[in-house]
Amino acid sequence: MRWLKSIWTILGSIAAGVMIGIYQPQLAEQLIPYGGLYLSFLKMCVIPIMVTAIVSSVGRLFMSTGSNKVLNKMLLVFIVGMLAVSVLGITAGLLGKPGEGISAGSKTVLGTIVLDNESSSADQADTASANGLMDFIFKLIPDNIFIALTQGNSLQILFFSVVVGIALGLLSVHTGEHFLSLVDLMFKVFQRIISWSMYVLPFGLLCIMAGQIASTGADLLLAMVKFIALAYTVALVLMIASGWIMAAKLKISFIQALKGLKETLIIAFGTQNSIATMPSALDSLRKQFKLDSDSVNLVVPLGVVLCRYSMVVVYSLGIIFIAQLYGVTLGLQDLFIIMAGAVLAAVAGAGTPGIVAIAMISLIADPLNLPSSTGIILLMAVNPIIDPILTTANIHLNSMAAVLIVDKAEDSQREAADYDPLPLGSSGTAS
Question: How many CB atoms lie within 10 A of CB 16?
């Protein structure tokens, strides 16, 4: 049955899904529930994997001596990476001018979409205003972790896992290791379940792609063709750049770096869900690139939840599109607001559903006096088209960040061998 996990089988199923969505839209709509069922199964396993991976990694990080080094590198790479993505999105918008030169027919199509969805957009914009940066901080701590687990609130689950991991890391080595061994066992159990689900991946991707294509109208595609083309271009440029960076850091070829993540990138493109792709990314980084397991298990979940490079592209490119659509000239100060605002909005929207996340663009549009409701409607309408490539780029960039932050397994073991600290359990402190 290995042929079911073949790259050609997976690509063929995606192509078949696209063809069904175009030529058999009624059949595609009937397949949508099955695609949702497959995604639900993946998400069922992802949350336990995320919890066990972070608890184990943070615990061992705080037991070791190199915690400050990893945390500092993580902070630097995440911030610089998101700012760089924001700058690229702004630059692409200014050069490509997606909001200019739109034909009268295309403007009519866009106007119809805006009118049809205007009432719902106002509610989503209000929700986004309520989900500002301060609200993000206040909602970080769950009132009840079991409710957060039931609702799949990834941000609150992430916070809980980090706190538990830190507490374990500050216990004595002997006590903490017993619990961490159990956590590692649970991590491997759910990884095994995920590996079983890969045999059903072609069918799941076929259903998901068919539904996505059927829900997207051809008129919208033609009306926003410049914006869609720019989004794909930015995503491909980011993936090529991150691929070369990974190759240079790992001292391998660009093709090897690409092959190491091929299954992960295909899953990301087909499911359009970064969280669901995370187990495959963890597996590839550990097995294909030989990175230290504990550090990878910490960096990747944090990056996927907090560093949503895909949303930074949507915000930065989307604001430029809205400004050009309404003929608003942006100054240098406005561009700096967009650059910083795209990063802050992406972080503030961490853990929110996709629709609410897109509505977070109002946090940038309102200070610039741009009509956020129009942007929200059009971005939501075009999201099924650009989401596959942006999710793929998001996972690729988070993998690159892990490569920059985490050392290879043999390097980590060598550093640990060079350092022989006094066991914490012997006196309660390290000399």
Answer: 15
